[in-house]
Task: structure prediction
Amino acid sequence: MSQAGNLGVQRPIEVGVEPSTWRTLLNWLLLLALVYLLVSAVSIIGGGFKQATGDQAKQLFEFSSNPFVGLMVGVIATALIQSSSTVTSIIVAFVAGGLPVAIAIPMIMGSNIGTTLTNTLVSLGHVRDKDEFLRAFSAATVHDFFNLLAVVIFLPLELMFGILERISLATAGLVYGDANLSMSGINFVKTATAPVVNGVSDIANLLPTVAAGILMIVAGIALIFLAIRYIGVLLKQLMVGRAKAVMHSAIGRGPIAGITSGAVVTFFVQSSSTTTSLMVPLAGSGTFTLREIYPFTLGTNIGTTFTALLAATAVTGAVAIHALEIALVHLFFNLFAVIVIFGLPLLRGIPLIGAEWLADLAAENKLFAAGWVLGVFLLLPAILIFVTVAFF
Amino acid sequence: MTTPTEPKRPSIDELEAMINETDETIAEVRAELERRRAEKQHLAIDELEQRLAEAKPKWAEVRAFFQLVLQDLRK
Result:
């Protein structure tokens, strides 16, 4: 190893390549602080929502009691924010503030569709090379088709039987058991987050009640944005080595390994948009095939559900069970979608066929790609919301 | 003047041997192809830090895409 030096060859000085121990430690501490901020922000929004609406939260969201409107609100909000983790965490906070779970479920499903926009936008960058664009666009839109199909299957089932709501409530009940949820005074999370929550609340309460509640909601949303953004940045630095190891180990091991690696890598970096976008250039260059990327993409849907579960730990008191319930709806929805759609050979190929069909069209005529992006993620949801609110 | 002779027809055993040899060659080529593809995938994953940093929409590219679409529509 030292021969290079003996021969007078200068080896590059590797300053800053490997983060030093203290820097890693600092990053972990910063990460903990950001998680604390996230959890506090959920409490702030929940408190602000209660304060702003009183007991009228349900009435406030009456416009989205139509599940299709709720669904479209989820699609548009996530498409605009480009982070399903942020949107689902905000939904958890709203549930903590009194938003009924039944209204929140279609929003959660919508956020699953909205999050697929990011990697589709990334694929548009490959438009100048027809073959590359065809591969990149199909790798991106296989996520769109899978998540759309999941909603097509599970939303009607949910409206008819409330399967996800029942299973999630039962599971949340197991977690909270028979504990007296109103005894929030001894809750660790509430005690730990009290300084930040009370601090923001005290400042906000200089304003009239409703304005103070709105200010708390806005402040909480801003804090969630910041927290999730920088949690992602830090985790990418801290966990990239493990993410690499997971991805290396999944190569050539089949779809289950692909799903698992997608879930684990997304859990590590806390962003399904990042992990699905990561694969698009690799598909464009032909390094990974559409069929290899498909299971990985499904795993990202599962890995991204952790953020909402973490956000739910912030909620205390009688609504804690419902906050956990909606976070579990997110998890079970994505888990069942993978089991049903990928598990059934009849359904498994549909997202692949859809993605290949659309990519063929888009490679021939870019208008199809533009129509898909604008139509599915913005125009169609906006029109549906307008029509439903205006006429029903 | 010599008359052209018919090429010797391979025997059934020889044909079977040719098929077996071809099958083996195809299997070897497939294995090599898989190995090289896996190698390429491992190399791509080795650059994960950079790829993660770039895994977001580049708005200039999105804008350029829609400009191309508008150009196509005007044609």
About this structure: Chain A touches chain B at residues 82, 118, 121-122, 124-125, 127, 236, 240, 243-244, 247-248, 251-252, 269, 273-275, 277-278, 281-282, 285, 287-288, 365-367, 369-370 (CB under 8 Å). DSSP finds 19 helices and no strands in chain A.
